[in-house]
Amino acid sequence: MKELIETIVKPLVDFPEDVQVDSTEEDHRVTYRLSVNKSDMGKVIGKQGRVAKAIRTVVYAAGASQQKKIFLEIVE
Q1: pTM across the whole model
Q2: Which domain of life is it from (predicted)?
Q3: Which listed site, 18, 41, 54, 71, has its alpha carbon 20 to 30 Å from 11?
């Protein structure tokens, strides 16, 4: 799943080397924390959060086959 998130986000940003995805796993949920360069934050979130929502939709759909709930957080 980390590779999928990186594959989606890296073409969107100016500093793809700063893209980092960390994950924490609990009983019935997996949380992925996406970190990008500060200047790329707006590109990842998009106008009114549309890009972030689209990224989340793809990640949630890809994780639907797992038995755990998937969450994606975008952090600075």
Answers
A1: 0.88
A2: Bacteria
A3: 71
